[in-house]
Write a sequence for this structure.
């Protein structure tokens, strides 16, 4: 049984910082932070889950069946992630590329302690609470007033390597274009990895820097023992609220400018760019098809098409697709029928994923997967893991990946520039 107690907090941003510092004592921790972005679809400004009572860690074989059973058995809040390579469970696909990170394909845990932040209220939702535990934890959090000093040993920053170099990137992109011109696919999300080996990094300090310069609406900090995700994602994968399902895919990126006039021009140019709009609309059609597998007949609607939103680092073109489902629809089934998300695969989805596997040089793993939670009532909310740093502390292996959507109108040089633009924030905090 969960016990819930609410407290008023005067400085929410300071509380969130202290709350995350406090969470480092636990082996399992997930923070989901909206960074105060206004949205009718945000349930919380931030939510933190720590200290697993139970958990599930699997490879891709039968992963969704295992998750479904775990979700039903706990009948409680569970937090965790779905890696991109669960595609091998939903379809007859394989992942044979190099994996430097070695994260489990799927990991969820049932937290003993959940802290929800909304407005000026903080809600503590504890499982099997002992007397005065919430008051004691609140005092601990409020007594923290600064971040610990960063422990990174490298004085000159982390040296980043490329898994493939520019010429090889162009060669592989042209092969993808050839497949598009032959009609095998219409669009493919082609990604590349940047990595570092034998590095020591302060995950908390690095996430704080990344989150500060990005202020993304679907930011996430995940710690699973020795494995970390530091995520500044602007994209929602899928949310369920009652009988409503919402997906908000991103396709279309433009740089920001310090000049107000130039910045406005960049935003307007993105909004009217025919290539970027066609990319977005292709994925909207794919998402509509995915949602229709569980949706009530005639309920799939596009609420917003190709709207440009501005974030700290980039302008993004986002669409919102929604549908209604029966209240009896299992939440894991809805996820399975739409996974992986269309914005990170392409169209048609299966053919695009087959080509991605051949052309990419690394196993995506948690990158382009999803982090989020299931609530006891069957609601859920998951982001898309992009603009993220992944770190295996034991192996001392660090990775971040970026990609872009390749269509018949793609210009290789521009696609490469888009990748570097998306990598800017991660490179900045590391180097």
């Amino acid at each position: 049984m969960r016990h819930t107690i609410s407290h008023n907090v005067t400085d929410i941003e300071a509380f969130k910082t202290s709350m995350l510092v406090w969470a480092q004592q636990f082996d399992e921790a997930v923070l989901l932070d909206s960074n105060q972005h206004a949205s009718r679809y945000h349930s919380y400004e931030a939510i933190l889950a720590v200290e697993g009572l139970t958990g599930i860690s699997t490879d891709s074989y039968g992963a969704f069946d295992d998750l479904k059973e775990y979700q039903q058995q706990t009948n409680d809040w569970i937090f965790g992630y779905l890696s991109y390579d669960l595609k091998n469970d939903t379809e007859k696909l394989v992942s044979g590329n190099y994996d430097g990170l070695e994260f489990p394909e799927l990991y969820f845990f049932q937290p003993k302690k959940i802290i929800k932040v909304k407005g000026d209220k903080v809600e503590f939702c504890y499982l099997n609470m002992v007397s005065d535990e919430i008051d004691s934890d609140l005092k601990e959090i409020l007594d923290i007033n600064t971040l610990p000093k960063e422990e990174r040993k490298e004085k000159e920053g982390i040296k980043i390597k490329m898994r493939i170099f520019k010429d090889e990137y162009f060669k592989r992109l042209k092969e993808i274009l050839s497949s598009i011109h032959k009609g095998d696919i219409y669009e493919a999300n082609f990604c590349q990895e940047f990595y570092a080996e034998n590095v020591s990094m302060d995950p908390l300090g690095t996430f704080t820097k990344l989150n500060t310069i990005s202020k993304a609406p679907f930011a996430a900090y995940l710690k699973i023992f020795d494995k970390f995700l530091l995520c500044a994602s602007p994209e929602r994968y899928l949310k369920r609220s009652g009988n409503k399902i919402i997906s908000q895919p991103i396709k279309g990126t433009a740089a920001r400018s310090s000049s107000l006039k130039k910045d406005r021009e960049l935003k307007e140019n993105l909004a009217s760019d025919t290539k970027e709009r066609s990319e977005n609309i292709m994925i909207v059609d794919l998402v509509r098809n995915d949602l229709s597998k569980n949706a009530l007949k005639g309920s799939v609607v596009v609420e917003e098409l190709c709207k440009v939103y501005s974030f700290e680092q980039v302008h993004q073109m986002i669409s919102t697709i929604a549908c209604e489902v029966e209240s009896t629809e299992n939440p894991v089934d809805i996820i399975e029928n739409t996974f992986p998300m269309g914005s990170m695969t392409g169209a048609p989805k299966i053919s695009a994923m087959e080509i991605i596997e051949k052309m990419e040089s690394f196993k995506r793993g948690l990158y382009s997967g999803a982090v989020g939670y299931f609530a006891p009532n069957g609601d859920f909310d998951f982001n898309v893991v992009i603009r993220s740093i992944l770190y295996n502390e034991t192996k001392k292996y660090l990775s971040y990946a970026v990609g872009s959507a390749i269509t018949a109108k793609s210009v290789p040089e521009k696609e490469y520039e888009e990748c570097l633009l998306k990598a800017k924030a991660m490179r900045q905090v590391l180097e």
